[in-house]
Amino acid sequence: MAEQDNSITVSVVAFGPLSEEIQRQQEIQLANPSTIKDLIDSMNLQKWLENGLTVAINGDRCDIEKVLSNNDEIALLPPVSGG
Fold this sequence. Notes:
- It is a single chain.
- This protein is α+β, with helices and mostly antiparallel strands.
- It has a single domain, classed as Beta-grasp domain (Ubiquitin-like (UB roll)).
- It has four helices and five strands.
- A five-stranded mixed sheet has the order 2-1-5-3-4.
- β3 and β4 form a beta hairpin.
- The chain is globular and about 45 Å long.
- It starts with a helix and ends in a 6-residue tail after the last strand.
């Protein structure tokens, strides 16, 4: 049980062009506590963040410093382009 307290598992769903770079849906284990920024760093997606990536936890957009909880669903939403 102590091992569960030291880590969390989150479900990550990527949309748009990001889903062509990483697996569209995956589960990731992180240390507890971890933030969205920790998740982004662990997935090497910093360039997406710099280019306007938006993140939602369980359907609510949030700041990258938001602390994640076990079983959260994280949506990675790249910026929309076009015209």
